[in-house]
Q: What sequence folds into this?
């Protein structure tokens, strides 16, 4: 029985790792895109001012 | 508004996930032959159904893109396929941890497992193709065609253990005479499926937000280049 708990624990840990890694990747990509968007917007504003 | 709805969906899926874990570990009866390891079922099978739904959503969006050339459908397709790939990965990763104690092996190349692995590769191939093709129009058309083949792959995975003899068990749900689940197992399975669907909805909205941001950036880049 305890042996089976080990497999259950491994399976659920693997699933959680996948979900957390994906959430982390989404967050990282969003902050990178927002930074890029802000820099492009400020570049355009600067050009328009000139 | 859209940020708020994805936050609400994420919160609801979080609460539902806690309830699913409670039902899976404390409420549902123990399966007689496999024991506690059978509880993997409640987190192994629903992700496959969610991945199948993702392929269906990707297929409908891709066909609509091919007809209308509206890039919002392409955004929906890539978002559904990427999130579906995560759910398909959960299904594939959990399976061997169930197989090892029950079958004595981690993996076997039977029709069900092989087709499931090929489908996972097709998901990955779609995402690699999106990065490989620079032209947005060609990229969207090529990827839309790939999703059509992927949908055929999804049907083969679902039917594999009905069409061929496999190491993977024959269908437990809707598998005909002799198949079936204890009613309490059904409730937990359906609740887990509902949880995964809500989680899929939340992740899909977040992923679509990224795609909208990317399109906005592409538009601004074009403006910068045309002014230069």
A:
């Amino acid at each position: 029985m305890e042996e089976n708990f080990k497999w259950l624990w491994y399976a659920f840990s693997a699933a959680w790792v996948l979900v957390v890694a994906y959430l982390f990747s989404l967050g990282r990509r969003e902050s990178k895109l927002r930074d890029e968007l802000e820099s492009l917007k400020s570049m355009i504003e600067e050009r328009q001012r000139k | 508004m859209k940020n708020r709805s994805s936050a609400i969906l994420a919160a609801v899926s979080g609460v539902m996930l806690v309830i699913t874990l409670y039902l899976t570990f404390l409420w549902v009866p123990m399966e007689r032959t496999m024991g506690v390891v059978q509880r993997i079922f409640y987190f192994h099978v629903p992700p496959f159904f969610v991945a199948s739904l993702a392929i269906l959503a990707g297929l409908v969006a891709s066909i609509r893109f091919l007809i209308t050339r509206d890039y919002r459908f392409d955004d929906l397709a890539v978002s559904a396929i990427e999130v579906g790939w995560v759910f398909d990965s959960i299904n594939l990763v959990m399976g061997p941890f169930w197989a090892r104690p029950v079958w004595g092996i981690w993996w076997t190349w039977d029709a069900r497992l092989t087709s499931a692995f090929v489908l996972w590769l097709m998901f990955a191939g779609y995402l690699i193709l999106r990065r490989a093709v620079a032209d947005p129009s060609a990229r969207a058309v090529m990827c839309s065609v790939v999703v059509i083949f992927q949908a055929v792959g999804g049907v083969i995975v679902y039917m594999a253990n009905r069409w061929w003899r496999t190491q993977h068990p024959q269908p437990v749900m809707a598998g005909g005479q002799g198949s079936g689940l204890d009613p309490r197992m059904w409730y937990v399975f359906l609740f887990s499926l509902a949880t995964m669907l809500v989680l899929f909805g939340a992740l899909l909205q977040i992923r679509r937000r990224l795609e909208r941001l990317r399109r906005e950036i592409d538009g601004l880049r074009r403006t910068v280049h045309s002014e230069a």
